[in-house]
Amino acid sequence: xxxxxxxxxxxxxxxxxxxxxxxxxxxxxxxxxxxxxxxxxxxxxxxxxxxxxxxxxxxxxxxxxxxxxxxxxxxxxxxxxxxxxxxxxxxxxxxxxxxxxxxxxxxxxxxxxxxxxxxxxxxxxxxxxxxxxxxxxxxxxxxxxxxxxxxxxxxxxxxxxxxxxxxxxxxxxxxxxxxxxxxxxxxxxxxxxxxxxxxxxxxxxxxxxxxxxxxxxxxxxxxxxxxxxxxxxxxxxxxxxxxxxxxxxxxxxxxxxxxx
Length: 260
Ligand code: CAA
Description:
Layout: E1 6-11, E2 14-19, H1 30-45, E3 51-56, E4 61-63, H2 76-95, E5 100-104, E6 107-109, H3 111-117, E7 121-125, E8 129-131, H4 145-153, H5 155-164, E9 168-169, H6 170-176, E10 181-183, H7 188-200, H8 204-217, H9 222-237, H10 240-250
Parallel strand pairs: 2-3, 3-5, 4-6, 5-7, 6-8, 7-10
Antiparallel strand pairs: 1-2, 8-9
Helix pairs in contact: 1-2, 2-3, 3-4, 4-5, 8-9
Bound molecules: acetoacetyl-coenzyme A.
Acetoacetyl-coenzyme A binds at residues 24-25, 27, 64-69, 86, 107, 109-111, 114, 133-134, 136-137, 139, 141-143, 145.
C-alpha cells in the first residue's frame, strides 16, 4: 500500500503505523486521518496482524494535534467536520478487534493526546509531553478529550488539565494513570516492540473479547456488564485456543495460539 503521510509496516504479527509529518510535529490533517483509516482496514483484513502500534516520525512528537494552520477562518460547519473526522479515527482505533498501542515518542497534544487515549495501551518515552492544550488557542478538545481524559484520570485532574491547557511530563502522566509505562528514550522502540510481541503471542479471540468487554462495560451498568462478560466467557471458552492453552499448561510448554 502506498501512503504519503504515514509509514505502514508489518512484521512479527505487529502492524506499525507511523504518522509521518515531522516538519509539522505530526499534526493531523484530513489526509493523515484517511491514510490511517485505510491502514486500519488492512489490519482488519490481515489475520497475521495481531497487534497495532501507532507512533510518530522523528524524536520530537507523537502528534501535536489537529492542524492549527488549517483552522484559520474555520466556520462552525468546518469545525464540526473536523470533529467528526477525529471521532471517526478514535472510534476506529477503539473498536478495532485487535489491541492498539500508542507509542508516545514526544509531544501528544490536543488531538494527538485524544488519539492516543483511544488506543488500548500507552507507552511513553521519557521526553514525552502530554496535554489538552486547546484552551490556549481559545478552543476545547474536539475528539473526545473531555470524555476519555475524564474516564481515564478522573474529573478532578481532567478539569485541571483541560482548563489550564498545561503540558505534563511522562512521569506525571504515569502517576495519573494516563500512560501505562515510561521508558528511557534510547530503549523506547525496543520496549514498544517487546510489549507488542508479547500481545501478538496471546490468544487473539480472548484479546478481542476482553477489549470489547472492558470498553463496553465502562458505558453500562455493572450488572449488565457482568452479564456481557458471562456471554463473552462462554464464547472464548469455545475456542480451539483455550484447548491449546490448557494442553500447553499440562504439557509444560508455551502455547501456540491460532485465533480459532
Ligand atoms: N498544527 C499545525 N502545525 C503545527 C502544530 C499543529 N498542531 N504544532 C506544531 N506545528 C508546526 C509549527 O507551526 C512549526 O511549523 P513551521 O516551522 O512551519 O512554523 C513546526 O510544527 C514545529 O513547531 P514549533 O516550531 O512550534 O516547535 P516548538 O518546539 O517550538 O514547539 C510545541 C512545540 C510546543 C508542540 C508547539 O508546536 C505547539 O504548541 N503546537 C501546538 C500544539 C497544540 O496546541 N495542539 C492542539 C491543536 S488543536 C486540536 O488538536 C483540537 C482538537 O481537539 C481536535
